[in-house]
Design goal:
Order of helices and strands: EHEEHEHHEHEEHEEEEHEEHH
Distance between the termini: 29 Å
Structural class: alpha+beta
Radius of gyration: 20 Å
Helix content: 25-40%
Number of helices: 9
Shape: globular
């Protein structure tokens, strides 16, 4: 189909149907209609305008793991088309580029923290192109870290792709030479210092409309690297490590006890206010940002999820207690944007 023929409305742009049901339930609770643009098919007539509406981009860095390796390119084309016609796009083309590049995330976060004169940190990171120089690069990197443990991850990641802990260069060499090693989809492997947390959890702050909604404590005592709150996500046992916490990427299935609110973190917290300013500067409306409180007392921000998901068990508890769940606030935000366009 040609997306030019779509009716005016609220649209979710995505490639993974498994992540949509919780949002559909929130739309149903609010009595608000929504539509979908699936980044696996269709097309656009460049000589015709898009429909009027609000277009929420949920393109995921892990789309290639679902045999949707071209969805990133389809998303770039769709967003360019929408933005050229001045449509209301939530998490537009610049945000897409941030989603698919942890290099860009790290550079923007580090630059922003320095410009603000704050003490928040990002992990020391080395980006290596291809496989040829990985061992030499890792040897130099480990030396600079005084031979402390380090981790790897894929630049275009999500789902904890390529995230593993290494205690030594010899252990890393064995991995590189084994059948387990997988070159990232974009060929860029990140070597990153291992951040040990004071306690066995990481914190994920959810932002909607660029504003803080809540902070979630995610238990990492089992050592898993995949901590995305989405019920549809699965655990890869190879990504577990015998350590209390890490600088990884936050997926658990129905593990409500792993996710709990950190009520002591709120809109007045300095880390939250700083991250809100960061989101405003880079026009990011919807995101989940993760950080660790290290054993040395530093707050280390290590991951930005712009296709953020919410844990259904935690969300249900919030609604039952009379609070506003993130999915419901998100629908409200999108509907507010749509009413502003149509009134």
């Amino acid at each position: 189909m040609l997306y030019n023929t779509l009716q005016d409305g609220i649209y979710i742009i995505h490639e993974n149907n498994e992540w949509i049901p919780p949002f559909k339930e929130a739309f149903d609770r609010a009595g608000v209609n929504f539509n979908e643009i699936l980044l696996t098919q269709g097309g656009i007539d460049l000589d015709s305008p898009p429909p009027q509406g609000v277009f929420w981009s949920r393109l995921s860095a892990s789309s290639h793991t679902r045999d949707h390796s071209l969805s990133k390119e389809y998303g770039r084309a769709i967003l360019s088309w929408l933005e050229s016609h001045k449509r209301c796009v939530i998490n537009g083309s610049d945000v897409l580029e941030l989603e698919v590049s942890k290099v860009k995330q790290a550079l923007l976060l580090e630059s922003f923290f320095k410009s603000q004169g704050v003490d928040f940190k990002t992990p020391k990171t080395l980006a290596v192109f291809g496989k040829t120089d990985l061992i030499n690069a890792a040897s130099s990197f480990a030396k600079n870290l005084n031979h402390k443990p380090f981790i790897t991850k894929h630049n275009q990641g999500g789902k904890g792709l390529g995230v593993r802990l290494f205690e030594s260069i010899e252990e890393f060499r064995q991995y590189i030479d084994s059948d387990e090693f997988e070159l990232p989809i974009d060929g860029i492997t990140l070597l990153q210092e291992y951040i040990e947390s004071k306690e066995a959890f990481i914190t994920r702050c959810e932002f909607i409309g660029g504003k803080f909604h809540y902070a979630v404590r995610v238990d990492t005592s089992d050592g898993a690297f995949e901590l995305c709150p989405a019920d549809a996500c699965q655990i890869d046992s190879k990504s577990a490590i015998p350590r209390p916490a890490f600088a990884g990427a936050a997926c658990e299935v129905g593990m409500g006890d792993k996710f709990s609110l950190r009520k002591e973190i709120n809109s007045k917290s300095s880390i939250v206010q700083c991250l809100e300013q960061f989101l405003a500067q880079y026009n990011i409306s919807v995101a989940g940002i993760e950080f660790i409180e290290s054993v040395s007392g530093d707050l280390v921000v290590y991951d930005i999820n712009t296709n953020t998901n919410y844990n259904s068990t935690l969300e249900s508890k919030i609604r039952q207690s009379g609070g506003v769940a993130a999915a419901d606030r998100l629908v409200e935000f999108l509907h507010e944007k749509f009413r502003a366009i149509t009134q």
